[in-house]
Write a structure and sequence with these properties.
The protein is built from one helix and nine strands, in the order H-E-E-E-E-E-E-E-E-E. By secondary structure, it is α+β, with helices and mostly antiparallel strands. The strands form two sheets. A five-stranded mixed sheet has the order 2-9-8-4-6, with no helix packed on it. The protein is elongated.
């Protein structure tokens, strides 16, 4: 018996059905994730990562610290930053982290006029995603030499 290839119209139909099955599976997964977040069961506090350990800087220079937040929810995460001292400079005062992505900000501390020693500065961070809200106090430590 001889092997015969399927006509082009049948091959296209098979490819279309396979692609449809994959899209349906992805859609069901996404809807499940959205449903859990809407019910509030899977929506937890954002994950923070600091690229900063106490910096050692010369007096008069800026100490910089970078921070990253991951939004695990399917809702936009609104982040508002509030410095507590005039020597702190933030690269942005508020931003939005899209669902399932990350956002970051950098804080700089101007050490002009600081004598040698260790200084701890505080940044107040207000977060909200849908009906949920969090507040975080982030410290930035720098040593002036």
């Amino acid at each position: 018996m001889r092997n015969r290839a399927l006509p082009e119209s049948c091959q296209t139909a098979v490819r279309t059905r396979a692609a449809s099955a994959v899209l349906v599976a992805l859609g069901i997964g996404w809807l499940t994730l959205c449903g859990l977040n809407r019910a509030g069961r899977a929506m937890s506090a954002p994950i923070w990562r600091s690229d900063h350990s106490s910096a050692v800087v010369r007096a008069g220079t800026d100490a910089a610290a970078s921070f990253t937040v991951r939004n695990w929810s399917t809702l936009p995460l609104h982040v508002s930053l509030e410095p507590t001292c005039g020597c702190e400079v933030l690269d942005q005062s508020e931003f939005v982290v899209p669902p399932l992505l990350t956002g970051s900000f950098t804080a700089r501390i101007n050490t002009k006029g600081y004598p040698q020693g260790e200084y701890t500065k505080v940044i107040l961070i207000h977060l909200s995603a849908g009906p949920k809200a969090w507040r975080k106090v982030q410290t930035v430590v720098c040593r002036v030499k």
